[in-house]
Amino acid sequence: MKAFNEKLRELRAERGLTQKQVATALSITIPTLSHWECGYQEPSYKDLLAICRFYEVTADYLIDPKEH
C-alpha cells in the first residue's frame, strides 16, 4: 500500500518531470511540492483537484492507500 506522498512522487517520476515543472504547472512553489512528496504536508482540496487534473488520475487513486 502506497501513501499519498509516494504516489505523488511516483507520478512525477514516471512522467520524467522535475519538481520545478510540476510546481509551475500547479502554480505552487517547489518547497510546497517537496513537502507534499515528503509527507510533511498535504494539499488543500483545491490543490488536490489540480493534481488530479494535471496527472489525469482520480482523487481515490491518490488518497486511498489500497489503490495502486
Characterize the structure shown.
The chain is mainly α. The chain is 65% helix and 0% strand. It is built from five helices and no strands. It has helices at 4-14, 19-26, 30-38, 45-55, 59-63. Helix 2 crosses helix 3. The longest helix has 11 residues, at 4-14. The model has no long low-confidence stretch (mean pLDDT 95).
Tally of DSSP helical segments: 5
Structural category: mainly alpha
* Cα-atom radius of gyration: 11 Å
Q: Please mark out the parts with pLDDT under 50 across 5 or more consecutive residues, or reply none.
A: none
Summarize the structure.
With 68 residues, this protein is mainly alpha-helical. The protein has five helices and no strands.
Furnish the topology, listing elements before pairings.
Layout: H1 4-14, H2 19-26, H3 30-38, H4 45-55, H5 59-63
What characteristics describe this protein?
68 residues, mainly alpha, 5 helices, 0% strand
